[in-house]
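Appendix B. Chain record.
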Amino acid sequence: MKILAVSDVPSDYFFEYYTPGKLKGFDCILSCGDLPREYLEFLVTMAECPLCYVHGNHDESFDQSPPEGCICADGRIVTCGDLRILGLGGSYRYRDGKYMYTEAQMKRRVRKLWMPLKKHKGFDILLTHAPARGLGDFDTLAHQGFGVFVDLLDAYHPPYLVHGHVHLNYGANIPRLRERDGTSIINAYDHYIFKC
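Structure tokens predicted for this chain:
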């Protein structure tokens, strides 16, 4: 499957400088959050493939007006073709906000998924907004990752973790890709294309 992952800022390549056919050929689009509703609706319309999203820490407006034609994967497992996608949106709590969580709160969210995880026999992609702790995050509270995501990687060994939240323009040496025990970890800031 050919997958387009997006996060945090609309990609000029696929939006401002869009030309007909640029979004053809994708089997699935994954949004890691903090993108405008209109942008997600544009992508799903032009690509003509499923778009699965999780909430970013700034996506409270989706409660009143969710992106039409898109699939919310936040807090559940959804399928796209043969892929099982486990969605866990939000960031580490650094102020009040609906989609900001303490480590304990995110652990409770994961514990509630034990039945879907058993039913689906795990998952292929962990789709998150925040990164896993120590795997692409920062030490600052606003951009700290979740330790429970590392626990999920250790327990299920999914082929992919796709996240956003840490903008690549925050520093010169922020890696887009990394590997950990057979899991490819992708920072989807702006956009990234991969096959699985």
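Further analysis of this model is presented in Appendix C.
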